[in-house]
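Repro case for the chain-ordering regression, as requested:
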Amino acid sequence: MLKQLRAIVGEENVSDDLADRYIYGSDASIHQSSPSVVVRPGSIKEIQEILRFANREKIPVVPRGAGTGESGSAVPLDGGIVLDLKRMDKILEIRPQDMFCRVEPGVINDELNRELKPYGFFFPPTPASGKVCTIGGMIANNASGMRAIKYGATRDAVLGLKVVLANGDLVRMGTSTIIQASGYQLERLMVGSEGTLGVMVEATLRLKPLPEERAVGRALFYELSQAGDAVSKIITEGIVPSALELMDEVAIKSVNKALKAGLPEVEALILFECDGIKASFNHEIQKIKKICEDCGAFDIIISDNPEEMEKLWEVRSSIFPATSMYKEDRIRATLAEDITVPVSRLPELVEGIHRIARENGIIIGTYGHAGEGLIHTAFLVNPRVSDEWDRTRKAVDEVFALVQHLGGTTSGEHGIGISKAPYFKKERKELLELMRGIKKVFDPHNILNPHKLMDAPEDFFTATKLRYPVKERR
Amino acid sequence: MKTKALESWEKDILRCIRCAYCFVDCPVLKELGWESAGARSKIILSYGLKEGEIEPNQLIKDRLFQCCLCAQCEINCPAKVKVASVVRAARRDLVEAGHYFEAHRMMKEMIKKTGNLYGEERKDFHYPKLGAEFALFVGCVGKYREEESLKRTLELLKELGVSFTTIEEVCCGGVFGDVGFEASQEDAEHIKEEIKKTKAKKLLTTCPMCYRTFKEDPRFKDLGVEVLHITQLLEKLEFPVKTERIVTYHDPCDLGRHSDLYQVPRNVIRKFAPNFQEMVKNRENAHCCGAGGGVRGSFTRLSINMAKKRLQEAIDTGAEVLLTECASCLHNFKNAKKRKQKIEIYNISEFLSLLMDGEVK
Ligand SMILES: Cc1cc2nc3c(=O)[nH]c(=O)nc-3n(C[C@H](O)[C@H](O)[C@H](O)COP(=O)(O)OP(=O)(O)OC[C@H]3O[C@@H](n4cnc5c(N)ncnc54)[C@H](O)[C@@H]3O)c2cc1C
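-- result from build under test --
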């Protein structure tokens, strides 16, 4: 296998060394499972040849961007080839007149936005991991972020794709037009496909004009339920902020530790942002402020100073890693992570999670894109204690049961991968066969990221080695 | 492999959430491309070694030594993982298990023989002076690799009337902790003894690495004198000269990220170079020159490639002069510079001396 791969991409772009196999066997999830070989292609042609070869030999192929996925979607369960796409990082074209750009899959979100800025446009999904994650990974996971409430998720920005199929064929899906009604929208099917249907090698992405101005606000609440109510009321009023975020006490304390942020350590805070033209959003901001006050908020700050706004947001974008600093012996294990419910059910969700944490004697921090009904769960675990993992797993089960009870979904933005597959399968019970049928049409030999999504193992916890030194495991 | 040193960094290793924010601006990753070369991976490899999931091989060793310890990753890490310290510990364990680089082991031997890293015939800059205010420590790189520049620095001190005395130096040993070896206690005692002899109350260093070593290394805990980097002294002095040329400044990692001296050198430059132009990446986000962490000795091409990139960033500011205050950075930049590149590169103190003598504009 090495010989053929080297012939395709060159010696220096293939490695089966233990160092690389170990590294490319993990992402930001709890999972660890090594590939047999890592390949770094530099062109579409090379990718086609690799897939032709792998398809013939029935070798699994797992595409990989930056490996920032949190549910193990880039972890190669069956070994095989990991296809590191970061060398393909060119922005091919920016066409503000047509409101799109064309990029290779390894382009990094923030770098694209840096290039777009002078044109007065931006690529709207704003994942907190935007400084490292790639466009390919974003499309495959349908990433989004805090601005999705106004600007949508990655799926809303994908106009067209070039995809290399399992058999090595290159196909074009979608268009370069803002709208299309030409039959099956297969480019949309690729969104959220998590590397199981094809390798995306080029994307045509819809751009949005950069809002001229914005303002950011922060409101503190003594009680979490007050913050939940405020979020619901803001949405009900018909206000569309460009972001509406919630942080609980665990999240607040963590960023205080990590960033010395100096936030008052109350039960909850919300961050909100409105953008556009000052004259029009000022009115909205004031309305939000009033709602927050009515719900019991205090110490409300509003700013349109760029530095202050950045400071306010820095707090938010640092929560994920910062939560691992909450308590000495605890680390943040990426579990559940991005559960999403209809916005009106948010207070119930957040309170339910805190109850589950209490009942199981563990710590779960909650924060997230409240305006989208999305809550991130920070499970803080002592990784060496197996009993703690047992209680954590039970809590994860209960959290997902609650989400389904509230009419929500397993993943709002990070994807399913391995860790969330059992719950996804419950949620989409009646669709699993249909999905398997689709997979078969695209990938008859099941070489592309096999055993993920509907085909993933029933027990995520034993599906792979964990990347923690758990003492005993059941 | 036994991992005694890594054991004490377990908390940091587990705290890493593997978010990869440390990929941003990791100069080694930018050069090598493979994820295994990036900062996050160094934590993962350390974890693997510690838990016995992997055993060292050539590439694992290479990856753990392909790091300038520039600590840009620590700035970017929201979980505040002490990446450079973990890498140092991993190196310590690797070396303990016999996985060292010959170039690094040689340095140890050279110091035993000659008192300097390069094993060169001993050079002593003799400016002995009794009752001087400062004992001066110039370090190996300046003395043996950037001698002309160092001489200028000493000239400047004299011209400015600074009361200093040289000592009989042996290497401060700072580099050894970086490359997995233990630094010599005996050498430390010698240095302390030499400083004591001068009766000076302050130790003046020209090299940021030496500065840091004297400040942080437990071997120098009982040094008993105040340690200053030369920029801290220059900040307090006035110079009778100015340059109208456009000048930029490169933050040495040991001075900036590791010692938090960002503004001090800028204050010095402001006194004589009104046309100062920052590089896009500056202060805590300044890209590394590629010389540190033992990389220049064991991965020379990698090291020079990093210096080339940083030099280009200096050129992109439109500056005619690139200043720094570190013999290592200076040396790497000079090695990286192509003849057609017009930018001039100096240490601040060197440039000032040349300016005062009218040898540069
Ligand atoms: C600190 C942190 C914060 C985060 N914040 C957010 C957030 O706010 N919002 C959010 O949505 N996500 C977030 N994430 C999750 C993650 O960053 C996103 O899912 C991101 O889109 C993954 O991109 P990546 O390049 O790292 O992909 P990877 O993790 O490398 O891969 C993800 C999936 O995409 C597939 N894939 C990658 N490239 C291709 C391709 N070219 N063709 C086909 N399949 C491909 C892989 O096979 C895998 O299934 C966060 C993660 C971290 C660690």
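Ordering looks correct now. Chain A touches chain B at residues 15, 17-20, 22-24, 26-28, 38, 40, 66-68, 84, 86-87, 129, 131-132, 258-259, 318, 320-322, 324-325, 328, 331-332, 334, 383, 465, 467-469 (CB under 8 Å).
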